[in-house]
Specification:
With 598 residues, this protein is α+β, with helices and mostly antiparallel strands. The chain has 21 helices and 14 strands. The protein folds into two domains: 226 residues, Oxidoreductase, molybdopterin-binding domain (Sulfite Oxidase, Chain A, domain 2, Alpha-Beta Complex); 300 residues, no CATH class. The strands form three sheets. Strands 6-5-14-9-10 form a five-stranded mixed sheet. Strands 7, 8, 11, 12 and 13 form a five-stranded antiparallel sheet that branches. Helix 7 runs parallel beside helix 16, helix 9 packs across helix 17 and helix 10 crosses helix 11. It binds ligand MTE and molybdenum atom (MO).
């Protein structure tokens, strides 16, 4: 204490109920440990081994898993069969008649009169592919931080439909962090196990720029005639696409002039990619937000975080397939002319487009190779720039106070993952062994009435209960019933001073790299309907693993901000002088954001 300016010094001296000055609360600050400003791979996340992701598996029956690598040979066989069938069809007279009636490409008269692909299309196309590279890599990193996908709100082990990790082991205290896996450094971004904090800055930060690029593209598309290049204007597109499919598969390349109009199969896939897949990626991304999900419950009842996460993943699969096939065709169907269209704004067989493309490719490769080492060396810059890009949106979402009553007993999940670093100090063990008889929650700092509350004191306060969903930043979720004291009751009890802006929750447990676990919350969220201190979970006292004797719930934020095993609460003006100064343990040590409502 003492380093908080601008208030009556009398009030800053925290005292116990008996009036004794309390040295215990002063220790809260000195027990903290600032994080490092560069990633140290030896000690990262408490020294996690680099367990790698397995090949993707999909669940077929109760316990039957299919390794998707089999799709490579199977897909190849299917392709061979399809080519054989298409070749047969192509030589068939009535199929030929069909193909004459539906020639594969519909050229709108406006496009015939005024053909061409302007330079801005090429420029925005380049920005798009450059940013997609970072978005996909960081997205994969986020995926493997909880390497399982589900269709249900809860994340019950064994009920996932997809995994790149072994089955969940029997260990009842197995944490989601134990479960995370890594990717090769040049595949994931940053490519180190459990770097989800940094991966999210890349993913969400670049997303903002990608969205702006996409919006500019949409606007230019519809204010010029270029939309005709991407939007089908007649139902003829479907039979035409059948013709083109037969042509491609029978290895009779359709004669398409993309400068004027794309063939119907191209048109359909481009349309789906630009106008369906891209918006779906954005929407499914937003549906994973705790703040938006707890506010817009009519949507989140259907598209809960796990549905959204699975859809988000399927959109990624679409993009990966699209990119593979797209690039294959660019190269095999007249590469110089194709590159001139998109990188040279010209329709000839010169090497201009190839030259521009080569420069673009070098830029993409440099960005690709540099991203991981730069991130590992300068994580604070990634954290700061990422926050600058996405922070305003997170701030906006936090105003969405969740309403109680959206979930019922039936929604309670059979399993709630554990996460974090368990307490193992002598102090905690003593408290636990004596049923927390000596436990005291100290609430101090910028308040009119600092207090020290035993569990009995807490139980004597008005009981608050809520059934809410937990959103771990790693991607798992689950619903539980929480019982305890509303933070509003605590605010009424201690009366924060006007200059109190942040509320810091200190844990009895250390974080993964030593030093007290803590987290700071904006004071306005403390009076939200569903912000509370819980001592019960599903009608029983909190267990050791879930935070006994007391934990925080702030439902517009991700799980890491819900401090478990709370020992004290401090009201402050700012958090820059607490711990490493970034607003919490994971903010200091793993480069998370102090607002994480998205
Ligand atoms: N003291 C402390 N609290 C913590 C953590 C931690 O490591 N230490 N982990 C957080 C994270 S990342 C999550 S997701 C939730 C998990 O709560 P649960 O184990 O009860 O599901 O606790 C949060 N509270
Ligand atoms: Mo978490």
């Amino acid at each position: 204490m003492g380093n908080v300016e601008g208030h009556n010094p009398d009030r800053s001296t925290t005292s116990t109920r008996s009036g004794r000055p309390d040295t215990a609360v002063a220790a809260y600050r000195t027990d903290l440990q600032p994080g490092e400003d560069a990633l140290n791979l030896d000690t990262w996340a408490g020294g996690l081994s680099n367990t790698r992701a397995l090949a993707p598996r999909v669940r077929l029956g109760r316990g039957t898993w299919f390794n998707l690598l089999w799709l490579l040979p199977l897909g190849f066989i299917v392709l061979l069969v399809a080519v054989a069938v298409a070749k047969g069809l192509y030589d068939n007279a009535s199929v030929q008649a069909f193909m004459t009636r539906h020639p594969g490409t519909h050229v709108p008269p406006e496009s015939a009169a005024d053909p061409g692909i302007p330079a801005w299309v090429g420029v925005l196309h380049f920005f798009n592919l450059f940013m997609m590279m970072f978005i996909i890599r960081s997205g994969l990193q986020i995926l493997v931080d909880h390497p399982r996908l589900y269709w249900t709100r809860g994340s019950t082990p064994g009920r996932e439909w997809f995994r790149v990790q072994k089955p969940v082991p029997d260990d009842p205290l197995w944490t989601a962090k134990d479960d995370s896996v890594g990717l090769p450094a040049q595949v994931g971004l940053p490519g180190v196990r459990h770097t989800i904090g940094l991966a999210r800055w890349w993913h969400l930060g670049v997303d903002v720029l990608w969205l702006v690029n996409g919006l500019v593209f949409y606007v230019l598309l519809f204010t010029t005639g270029q939309w005709r290049h991407l939007v089908p204007t007649s139902w003829e597109v479907f039979p035409n696409a059948v013709t083109v499919t037969i042509e491609y598969l029978s290895l009779n390349w359709p004669d398409t002039n993309g400068w004027v109009a794309y063939n119907s199969l191209q048109l359909l896939t481009y349309f789906l990619t630009v106008f369906v897949a891209a918006p779906l990626a954005v929407l499914s991304g937003l549906c994973m937000s705790p703040a938006l999900s707890t506010r817009f419950t009519r949507i989140s009842n259907v598209v809960n975080i796990q549905v959204a996460r699975s859809v988000h993943f399927l959109v990624l699969v679409w993009f990966l397939l699209f990119i593979t096939i797209h690039v294959t065709f660019v190269v095999t169907t007249g590469v110089l002319r194709n590159l001139n269209h998109m990188f040279g704004a010209r329709d000839d067989d010169s090497w201009v487009g190839f030259g521009v493309f080569s420069v673009a490719l070098v830029i993409v490769l440099l960005g690709w190779v540099a991203a991981t080492p730069v991130t590992l060396r300068h994580p604070r810059i990634v954290q700061r720039v990422g926050y600058a890009l996405i922070g305003p949106a997170q701030r906006l979402f936090e105003h969405a106070d969740a309403r109680p009553g959206a979930l019922t007993e039936q929604d309670i999940s059979p399993y709630l993952w554990h996460n974090g670093t368990y307490p193992d100090s002598a102090e905690y063990r003593h408290l636990y062994d004596t049923d927390f008889a000596d436990y005291r929650l100290r609430i101090h700092g910028l308040v009119d009435h600092p207090v020290e509350l035993s569990l009995a004191d807490l139980r004597a306060l008005p009981y608050h209960e809520q059934i809410t969903q937990h959103f771990c930043i790693q991607g798992w979720s689950g619903v539980a019933k929480w019982g305890g004291v509303s933070m509003q009751t605590i605010l009424d009890l201690v009366t924060p001073l006007p200059e109190a802006r942040w509320v810091v929750f200190y844990s009895l447990a250390e974080g993964a790299n030593g030093g007290t676990y803590y987290d700071a919350h904006a004071i306005d969220q403390m009076s939200h309907h569903l912000t509370m201190l819980a001592y019960n979970m599903n009608d029983a006292p909190l267990t050791y693993g879930h935070g006994a004797p007391l934990r925080l719930r702030n439902e517009v934020q991700h799980g890491f901000k819900h401090v478990k095993w709370i020992r004290g609460i401090e009201f402050v003006t700012r958090f820059s002088d607490v711990g490493g100064g970034h607003g919490g343990y994971n903010e200091d040590h793993e480069y998370y954001g102090y607002r994480q409502s998205l």
